[in-house]
Amino acid sequence: MKTIAGFDRIGEENAFAVLARASALAAGGMDVINLGIGQPDFPTPPNIVEAAVKALRDGHHGYTDATGLPALREAVAADLDRRFGTEVRPDRVLVVPGGKVTMFAAILMFGEPGADILYPDPGFPIYRSMIDFTGARPIPVPIRESNGFAFSAEETLSLITPQTRLLILNSPANPCGGVTPRAEIERLVSGLEAHPDVAILSDEIYDQMLYDGEEHVSLLTFPQIRDRLILLNGWSKTYAMTGWRLGYAVWPDGLHDKARKLAVNAWSCVNTPSQYAALEALTGPQDAVATMVAEFDARRKLVVEGLNALPGVSCIVPKGAFYAFPNVTDTGWQAKPLASALLEQTGVATIGGPDFGTLGEGYIRLSYANSRENISRALERMDAFLQKA
Fold it and tell me: How many whole angstroms separate alpha carbon 166 and alpha carbon 157?
C-alpha cells in the first residue's frame, strides 16, 4: 500500500524505545534504573488531581472551545504577565494536547520543499523529525559544550539565508541542560531584525527549572519580534503532568487563526477535565513546584559529581531542565553502543547522544528525574562497568 513520501521520512523519539526496552527487561526480572525518560518522578500535586475529579463530578464531560477554556487561556496570559511582565492577550493563547503539538503545527506551517528550518543540534528529536516530514531542509544550529550548551547568537544568525522560514530555539534545553544568557539572546534578537521574514518558535517548556541563580529570558519580552514569535510551553514538566497531555502556545496575530483551524481539524479540543486541572495548576498554590525544583537541584549536584568521578567521563554542570549530558569520548565507546550496553548489562537506562542530533556523538543523556538513591546506585553500576570495559 503506497503512502506519501513524507511518512517515510518521519523519525521518532528514541527515549520511548528505551523506555519500552527497559520495561521489558524489568518485566523479565532485571532491576532497572531508568535515567532515560524525561519526566518528573513526582506525582501530580493533589489539588490539581482533585480539580480534575471535581470537573468530572460536576459534569464537565463535553467539548470546549477548540482554543481551550476561556478561563484557562486567561490564566495562562495572567501567569506569563506575572512572571515576565509582558502582556499576553488570552485570545492568542491556544491550549493543546502536549508540547509536541505546537512543534507539529509550527513546522507544518513553515516547512515545505525549498524552505530551510533551523533547529538545535543536539536538540529534542521531534524538531528534526517534523522538518524532514514536511520536505523542508533541516539546518542544525550547533549547541556546543564549549559554550556551556547555550546557543551562539553569532553562529545562529550566520546560518540564516533567504530560504530560512523558521528558527527553533530551546532554553533551558533538552538534552543538554544549557541555559542561554540574556546577553546572547539580546544579540540574537537584535540580529533577527535584519531577517523580518523568519518566524521563531521558542520552546520554553523548562522555563521554571533553573539553578544557581540563572534567569529565564522569555522571547515574549522582546516586542520587536512578537509579530512572528510562537511560544511553546505547558504543564508537563513544571507540574509533573506528563501523562495529562497538556500544553499551550502563544501565537502572533497573523498565525493564531491558522493554528485554531488546525486544532479544529486535528483534535477538536483538549480533554475537558484536564483543562480544569491545568487551571488549578496555574491559579492554586505553587509550593509543589518549588519543592520539586529544589530536589532536582540536589540530584543535579549528585549526578554531576558522580559522573565526573567515572573513568573516561566528564560532565559540565547543567544550569536548567533535569538532564546531564556527559562527554563519554574518553571511555573509548561510541555513545549509542555505550547506552545500549549500560542498559542490557547493568540495568541503567540512558539515551545515546546521537538520538538528539549528529552533534550528540560522544555524549549520553541522563535524566536526574529519579531518586537520589537510584541515581547513586546507577552511578555505582556505571563505574563498575567502565572499570571493566
Answer: 12
The burial class, CB within 10 Å (0-12 / 13-18 / 19+), for 272 is middle
pLDDT tens, position by position, 84-119: 999 999 999 999 999 999 999 999 999 999 999 999
Q: How far apart are CA 219 and CA 216, in angstroms?
A: 10
CA distance 239 to 247: 11
Instruction: Indicate the length of the chain as a whole number.
Output: 389
Encode pLDDT of 146-196 as tens digits.
Answer: 999 999 999 999 999 999 999 999 999 999 999 999 999 999 999 999 999
Sign of the CA dihedral running 346, 389, 315, 341: negative
Separation between Cα atoms, residue 58 and residue 39, nearest integer Å: 30
Mean pLDDT score across all residues of the chain: 96
Q: Which residues, 6+ apart, have CB-to-CB distance to 13 below 8 Å?
A: 124, 125, 126, 129, 355
Give the pLDDT band of residue 3 (cuts 50, 70, 90). Answer: confident
So what's the pLDDT on residue 212?
Answer: 97
Give span(s): CATH 3.90.1150.10, the chain: 5-44+287-383
CATH class label, 50-283:
alpha beta
Q: How far is CA 354 from CA 85, 148, 280, in A?
A: 38, 18, 38
Nearest to 364 by CA among 127, 23, 14, 9: 14
Pick the CATH number of 5-44+287-383 from 3.40.50.720, 3.40.980.10, 3.90.1150.10, 3.40.50.300: 3.90.1150.10
Sheet of strand 247-250, all strands in order from the earlier edge strand to the far edge = 93-96, 247-250, 229-234, 199-203, 164-170, 116-121, 137-142
The model's pLDDT over 80-91, given as tens digits with 9 standing for 90+, comes to: 999 999 999 999
Q: Which residues contact 114 (CB under 8 A, 6 or more apart)?
A: 136, 163
